[in-house]
Design brief:
The chain has helices at about 30-40, 55-70, 80-95, 105-145, 150-160, 165-185, 195-235, 235-245, 250-285, 290-300, 305-330, 335-365; strands at about 10, 20-25, 45-50, 50-55, 75-80. It is mostly helical and about 375 residues long. It folds into two domains: about 10-95, 2-Layer Sandwich (Transcription Regulator spoIIAA), CATH 3.30.750; about 120-365, no CATH class. α6 packs parallel to α9 (about 250-285) and α7 (about 195-235) packs antiparallel against α9 (about 250-285).
């Protein structure tokens, strides 16, 4: 095996700022090249590489990095004519971009926030358009009653209403009892335990009954609507419905909307009664307020407007839950992953929007002194 000429350098006697390179500057001598470059004095401002017998891309890159560290340009290095083609090629593909600054995640978080806000805006526009489409078809249904799907509507009423009654009663009863316990704990210090009656009654008639019922149905019913319609979309059943000349809105969406519009107010009324029963139970067993006395005070102090305020929110929440659940189902792309993503999005959107609307309604009714 022929030993390669080792790389070397020599300071020009006529010009101490100029160095002459010699030997083979290639990949197999890269370590020796690095050692020689480190030995070159800092006073060198020009390089004569015409004495290099053999050079490859590794040698050119090492010279290029050396020149960059010393503040020299590639024009300050004199190459042989037969080496210039390689040097020019390396220059063309060299990456002179500045090093990327360290990212602390702020810009990425800001970008995600902007994308999320844009997505929320698109969802609002889609929901408004979908609401308008359903309202127009409900008006058409009033003019053409033969389009009404009675069997589908009754079946949905059973699923979203009757099947949810035990859960709504249990949760409302327990929350009513908890509110009575907390109220009595605070009011006992002032000797005003009797005002627990007003606390539980007003809280449940105005806010808690309709809000809890809507949240339960948002998690239970909206997700079911999205999963059912999304599964049909992924299996191309909705395309088959259109092929048969039927309207998917009339067949799938309107029965669910009507069922929820009927059942959510009824479930809200049941939740009100269950919550009040929880308050009566705590009053009887913990506060020493007999049920007759509890009901008599509630009859004396409660006004019908509290009941009407709570019931007025139920149809709005029902419309929001049904429309978002059906809309997210129609957005499914056709994969099982898409069904899961849309179901999650449906629950998050409905619960968030229900709470936002309830807060706005509470502020409005308070300012109107209702």
């Amino acid at each position: 095996m022929i030993e390669a000429d080792l790389p070397d350098y020599q300071i020009d006697d006529a010009d101490p700022a100029r160095v002459r390179l010699a030997g083979e500057w290639a990949l197999d001598t890269a370590l020796q090249v690095a050692d020689k470059l480190r030995q070159i004095p800092d006073t060198v401002r020009a390089i004569d590489a015409s004495g290099i017998s053999r050079i490859d891309s590794a040698g050119v890159l090492q010279l290029r990095r050396f020149a960059s560290r010393r503040g020299l340009a590639m024009e300050d290095i004199d190459f042989r004519e037969d080496h210039r083609a390689l040097v020019c090629t390396i220059e063309d593909v060299a990456d002179d971009r500045p090093p990327r600054k360290r990212d602390y995640g702020f810009l990425a978080a800001l970008a995600r926030l902007g994308q999320r806000m844009e997505e929320i805006g698109r969802n609002i526009v889609l929901l408004v358009g979908f609401t308008g489409e359903n309202l127009s078809k409900l008006l058409r249904l009033a003019r053409q009653p033969r389009r009404f799907r009675l069997t589908a509507t009754v079946a949905q009423m059973e699923q979203v209403g009757l099947d949810a009654v035990p859960l709504v009663i249990l949760l409302s009863y327990l929350v009513g009892a908890v509110i009575a316990f907390l109220g009595s704990t605070v009011l006992r210090d002032f000797g005003a335990e009797i005002f627990v009656v007003e606390l539980v009654s007003i809280a449940f008639l105005r806010e808690f009954a309709v809000l809890m019922t809507a949240i339960v149905l948002a998690g239970r019913t909206a997700s079911a609507f999205t999963a059912q319609i999304g599964a049909m979309k992924s299996r191309e059943e909705i395309d088959a419905i259109r092929t048969l000349g039927l309207d998917p809105i009339d067949l799938l969406v309107i029965p669910r909307v009507l069922a929820l519009l009927v059942m959510l107010p009824l479930l809200t009324f049941i939740a009100m009664m269950a919550g009040l029963a929880g308050g009566v139970t705590v009053g009887a067993f913990d506060l020493g307020i007999p049920p007759q006395m509890y009901l008599a005070r509630m009859h004396e102090t409660m006004e019908v407007r509290h009941f009407l305020v709570g019931m007025s929110k139920a149809p709005v929440f029902a419309l929001v839950i049904a429309l978002i659940g059906c809309l997210e189902g129609l957005k499914v792309r056709g994969t099982a992953q898409s069904v899961g993503e849309r179901t999650t999005s449906s629950v998050v959107q409905t619960i968030s929007l229900v709470i936002i609307l309830d807060a706005l309604a509470a502020l409005w009714f308070m300012n109107m002194d209702w």
